[in-house]
Amino acid sequence: STSLLSSQMKKSAEQYQKACAVIPGGVTANIKYIAPHPIIMERGAGSKLYDVDGNEYIDYLLCYGALILGHGHSVVFEAISTQMREAGTTIFGTPHQLETVMAEKLIELYPGIEMVRYTNSGLEATLLAIRTAMAYTGKPKLAKFEGHYHGGYDQVLISVNPDMDQAGEARNPYAVPESKGVPDYYVENTIVLPFNDLEATEQILRTHKDELAAVILEPIQGGFIPAEPEFMKGLRKITEELGIVLIFDEVKTGFRLSLGGAQKIYGITPDITSLGKVLGGGFPVGAIGGKREIMMISAPDGGRDILTAGAANREKREVLFHSGTYNGHPTVLAAGLATIKTLEQAGVMNALFDHTQLLRKELEELYRNYGVTMQTVGKGSIFNIVLTEEPIKNYRDMGKANMQLRKEIDYELLKLGVYIKPLNRYSMSVVHSKEDIARTVEAHESALKRVRK
Ligand code: PMP
């Protein structure tokens, strides 16, 4: 029953054929493909998506977690139209006040952020974070964790989703390129670490300490597998001792695990934080923030005497180069600020967490009643459905789950009006209602009945 999407998606199939003639594979990101064809969307409203055939879906993709206020929230629409009306333009191309307003907000919310720079995506944010760490330490290598995603570029397209027969020992993984076209250089200069294994991680870091500029990690792998608190504590301690910059990639956890991200929940302060997704209120954005001393390396004069000396006094190669036509886009920052303001209202985040918890609990109960082995794994407003009872602590543990059954269920859910990318996690928004939750649980029940036939 995983086979085809139903005849109710004819127009999607037709539109996909057209796309395939002009776009490789018909998709603008490989992960957006769903066999036999993606569902082509036309409209969104609150917690719902509507496809070109007029089918309605309760959306749990939420643009990979970005749309924490759901689709078309009025505060975002109002903020961007007010901003453009008052500014009289979409973007200035010069410094403007919202850049500082947002930076002050991020500094207030994130313990690890003392200064801020903007980018246009999460990808660019982690790239800038890594370059900043390399510039600051003068060391050439990066350590990342197996199974962790930091964006689609060479340096971090290593061991994101490696085949087990190429990935080496669990406690000392190999660096495996994730894509064709990734130069060997990055395979050789990236150290891969086992997530939630402090002892092995410490050993590898000690071995490579003189070459390692930074360790980057998702505090919650894939948005749903939490770092263990003791692991986080140990990682902070050892990186500090060894002079390795600790980068929290909070592109997904930022504003979702808490308004101050994972660092606020864990009580661990990273040296650099990358942000994206929710920060842009549904528009492309990224940012990095970190310790003043580290961040100042990208000031035009290296921070020596910025107001009087100016850029001319500094050797070009001493400056960390950071640029971007659209960095700090005022319309985007207006959308992001409106989003954050909404999330800051009393009770909003807690209601979001309560609804997520309710959905998880009801799904766990349902699967138990149907005798299907299952657990939900996650923290905050994102979780995943994992069809195994084995504990899930890292990338390799996911291999124990029944992916085939999960896929069959997900395909049925699509036909039943629940939008979940097959095998993907569930993101919740503040506008997902109790009724949405009840309908989602009903859809799961129908799906379980169908796949068990
Ligand atoms: N880091 C993490 C943790 C992410 O989840 C993502 C996006 N899924 C990125 C970086 C890359 O962000 P973007 O897609 O905006 O480039």
Describe this protein's structure.
This protein is of the alpha/beta class. It has two domains: 139 residues, Aspartate Aminotransferase, domain 1 (Alpha-Beta Complex); 271 residues, Type I PLP-dependent aspartate aminotransferase-like (Major domain) (Aspartate Aminotransferase, domain 2). The chain is built from 13 helices and 18 strands. The strands form five sheets. A seven-stranded mixed sheet has the order 4-14-13-12-9-5-8, sandwiched between helices. A hairpin with a 4-residue loop joins strand 2 and strand 3. Helix 6 runs parallel beside helix 7, helix 11 runs parallel beside helix 13 and helix 12 crosses helix 13. The longest helix has 22 residues. The protein is globular. The termini are close together. The mean pLDDT is 95. The site of 4'-deoxy-4'-aminopyridoxal-5'-phosphate (PMP) has 13 residues, from helix 4. It comes from Aneurinibacillus migulanus (Bacillus migulanus). Belongs to the class-III pyridoxal-phosphate-dependent aminotransferase family. HemL subfamily. GO terms for molecular function: glutamate-1-semialdehyde 2,1-aminomutase activity; pyridoxal phosphate binding; transaminase activity. InterPro entries: Aminotrans_3 (IPR005814), Aminotrans_3_PPA_site (IPR049704), PyrdxlP-dep_Trfase (IPR015424), PyrdxlP-dep_Trfase_major (IPR015421), PyrdxlP-dep_Trfase_small (IPR015422). It catalyses: (S)-4-amino-5-oxopentanoate = 5-aminolevulinate.
